[in-house]
Design a protein that fits this description.
Shape: elongated
Radius of gyration: 17 Å
Number of domains: 1
Distance between the termini: 52 Å
Structural class: mainly alpha
Number of helices: 3
Number of strands: 2
Strand content: under 5%
Helix content: 55-70%
Mean pLDDT: 90
Order of helices and strands: HHEEH
Largest sheet: 2 strands, antiparallel
Strand order of the largest sheet: 1-2
Length: 107
């Protein structure tokens, strides 16, 4: 299995869970209105941090990638597939919050 296929699976699961959470949310328009800007800003910060620290870990020898399992597209030393995991987390964590939050608890 290639890293790209594994990445697509993670992203697909995260997108599916977020879609379900938004479909079930009675206040989805408000959630999307409030969350889109912080989500984009967080994504940019996390992707920059991923690029910096993954490159450092590869240079230090903590991580290696078999050439047969990556697409070959890289940002310096980091395979592009590596960026899908933080993106999946950025989609999945708010989705899980939406699915598990309490509703109707206002006094």
């Amino acid at each position: 299995m290639t890293y790209a296929l594994l990445s697509l699976i993670f992203l697909a699961v995260a997108v599916a869970v977020l879609a379900i959470a938004l479909i079930l949310a009675p206040d989805r328009a408000e959630v999307v209105r409030r969350w889109w800007a912080p989500a984009v800003l967080t994504a940019l910060v996390v992707l920059v941090l991923t690029a910096v620290f993954d490159n450092l870990m590869i240079v230090a020898g903590f991580m290696t990638y078999a050439d047969a399992h990556i697409t070959g597209a890289k940002l310096v030393l980091v395979p592009l597939e590596d960026f899908s995991y933080p993106l999946a987390a950025l989609l999945l964590l708010p989705a899980l919050w939406l699915l598990t939050r309490r509703r109707g608890t206002r006094s």
